[in-house]
Amino acid sequence: MPIARVLTATGKRGIEVRLAERFPPAVAAELLAARDAHCLALEVETADRAAGLVAALLAAGAVAAASATLVATVATEAQLVALAAVCPQFEADAGVLARTLRNARTPPAVFRMRDRVLDVGDEARVMGILNVTPDSFYDRVAGPAQAAARAAAMVAEGAALVDIGGQSYAHWNPRVAADEECRRVVPAVEAIVAAGIDAALSIDTFKAGVAEAALAAGAHLINDCSGSSDPQLAETVARYDAALVVMHLKGELNVRSAASYVYTDALAEIVEFLYERTEWARAAGVAADAIAIDPGLEFGKEPDTDLEILDRFGELQALGYPILFASSRKSFIGRLFDRPANELLIPSLATAGLGIAAGARMLRVHDVAPTVQLARMYAAVAPDRRRALTFAERMPGTPATGNSAQPSAV
Fold first, then answer.
1. Is 175 annotated as catalytic?
2. Which of 184, 301, 329, 364 is catalytic?
3. What is the mean pLDDT of residues 126-153?
4. Annotated catalytic residue, options 250, 277, 330, 361
5. pTM of the prediction?
6. pLDDT by residue (tens digit) across 237-253?
7. Please, which residues have CB within 8 angstroms of residue 38's CB and are 6 or more apart in sequence?
8. Which of 71, 103, 199, 295 is most buried by its number of CB atoms within 10 A?
9. According to the model, what pLDDT value does residue 32 have?
10. Does residue 133 contact residue 180 with C-beta atoms inside 8 Å?
11. Contact at 8 Å (CB) between 166 and 205?
């Protein structure tokens, strides 16, 4: 008997290209729209409204159910558009669901940072960590010259961004004043700019004053790990037409309070937090295409929550922003394997792979070269990419031979 197949691909573009090869554009588009239905969840005001929305979704041909005020549905965008047209009382709910579905189906292709535009459509881009601190837990540099040399080395290894940090957020380290942080960070930015190193420069800070000085020196991006604690930071970023990473944080930087790191639904809380803070950043003038999000692995979280975030990472695509993934050599991995930071390369790469598969397109890492290889390997399987690749005649290190037969894989 004939065997049916499941049409699938590792990347979103894979199935699109395959359908386009065999079907007319309109048919392919219809198949893709139906195929990209996701299980969506929406909290509404009352249980009665939830029941009414479920009934309307079912009438539109969707699958839907309610648990108290939570509505879960698997619906196509066409079904949601039809629901909004037929049931005006649910137009806003249908619009929210449709927007979320579009965000998950078509993630952003670019991330803009002042005069730089980073392609984040297919291949994840690597952000190298450059700590100009005396107390960071791993891989530090001292002074502007070393900072420029390390940045040049990371770019040579394939980094597209360099994240410069002048303050450690480990709870055993004290906070530093803004002027001291500037003293560490700004000369490093100036040295990298003066050296003509071709990378977007990110500043890992939550202080508007440090951001101001670094952006004036030539930085492109502010990576705020505080959950937007400084009300002036977004306005400062907007004034320079720079980019902003908004990270989720429960609690306070440099303070550990494990008893308070309790979540009823971790991803629901994180997504809601990031939605509120990104809306606040946009209201302050930061452009929508210059915002990225970060779930804040390990910041205000215990290892079980970090692992849950890895498992449910794709839910962050609902917000429609590029996602920064930052798990490199973090202590939740060390606590899992009972190993120090310098022995965590392989599990760090494994988590990065999970992030890429779930939609992360920027990877903040200590180990640039292996992570670039990881990201390029993931990208290489997509039809558009693999057809444009060139391959060496043979793998380096293997002997040349006149035998044209297919070589053994052993």
1. no
2. 364
3. 89
4. 330
5. 0.91
6. 999 999 999 999 998 88
7. 74, 100, 101, 104, 105
8. 295
9. 82
10. no
11. yes
